[in-house]
Amino acid sequence: MITSTPVLPVMLFPALANAPLDAALFLAGRLLQLCDYRFTTVTPDTHAVILKRMGPRAARDLCEVFGWNLPFHAGLLPHRLLAALHAADALDMLPEGRLRSRIRFSTIGSRIVLHSGYPTRERDAVFFGPDTYRFVHLLRRTLAGGARLLEIGAGTGAAALSLAERYDEVVLTDINAQAVRYARINAALAGCDQVQVLCTDLATTVDGGFDAIIANPPFIIDAEHRLYRDGGELGITVALRMVEAALPLLAPDGCLVLYSGAPVVAGRDLLADALAPMLRASGRPAQYEELDVDVFGGDLANPVYSQAQVERLAVVSVIVGNTTAAPRVRQRSPVKAQANGSAWCWP
Ligand SMILES: C[S@@+](CC[C@H](N)C(=O)[O-])C[C@H]1O[C@@H](n2cnc3c(N)ncnc32)[C@H](O)[C@@H]1O
User: Fold this and answer.
1) Beta partners for 257?
2) Distance in Å, CA 152 to ligand 1 centroid
3) Could you tell me which of 143, 135, 77, 67 has the C-alpha nearest to residue 103?
4) Does domain 130-321 correspond to CATH entry 3.40.50.150?
5) Which one of 111, 170, 197, 216 would you pick to mutate in the ligand 1 pocket, going by the greatest count of ligand atoms within 8 A of its CB?
6) What is the pLDDT of residues 75-108, one digit of tens each?
7) What is the pTM of this model?
8) Best substitution site from 123, 127, 244 to test ligand 1's pocket, by max atoms within 8 Å of Cβ?
9) What is the mean pLDDT of residues 227-231?
10) Fewer CB near the last or first residue (10 Å), C or N of the chain?
11) Which candidate, 291, 256, 294, places its Cα nearest to that of 275?
């Protein structure tokens, strides 16, 4: 249960201060942080199995409300948390007086991440899942830090935010306006004051000179054309466009890290083949590595994959440019909350 009144530093983030629904979502996340909330998001398939195992019952704790996304009775939640969800218009009213949250919260390391409710069927659903965890592990062991970081297709922003303490300036882009909202809220929850989030295709409105650019593009052939999943033709078009957009924005010593799915046909990796000329032309060193040989076997039932004779979907990393080993930690002073004069250090 929540026992203390949180200091509300929302006024430090102008993008939230002028958006009451977003400020309410921020408050919900902040209250969960104060409860030491922890939840690891699993794949939709695993989620479905666990929901079936739980049956039609109502949620019994915060993880079941905001992680497993079960219906719940209003009395389960502390009053302030329930009020924040109402204020954020984040609740569905169900029969028999039960409620369901339209949003979920997960954790990665010590950070809390706001993302879309289960199941993520809407075209503008905001993705967070096992791929994000794998992407973050790759990034944290690859990128030491520097002045400027760009994430193209940032979704919740969880990946770039996991590196934020290593960079002075962090720019996130996404084509999905809902993702941009959630990424701003997540940046505030992470206490990152050097983050800018832009709604744009690729990085069209962004100036170059980045020490690092990262991307985990959509890479599935998705009949429902969800922005977080639909990778275009054979699931690789968006990845290719992101790399093409990123290369000119890299500083001379910069590093691009792409994490993606790659369709394999008769032993040939179609993403690797399509990227090769672009990477050669960049004149930068590049490493291509298969991280997992077969991740989304279930999706191969899609007739488009059958027609194209795709035999497996691998997960790969593409690292372009130089990487350095020792992580850098950005120096900064604690942010001061201005409205009530009390100091508040970010976790
Ligand atoms: C698989 S999700 C990954 C999200 C996040 N990077 C992560 O790792 O959790 C792909 C993201 O790319 C975004 N996206 C798709 N097409 C895009 C485009 N043309 N420009 C910018 N973002 C795009 C989607 O909206 C989605 O948020």
Assistant:
1) 214, 319
2) 7
3) 67
4) yes
5) 216
6) 999 999 999 999 999 999 999 999 999 999 999 9
7) 0.91
8) 127
9) 95
10) N
11) 256
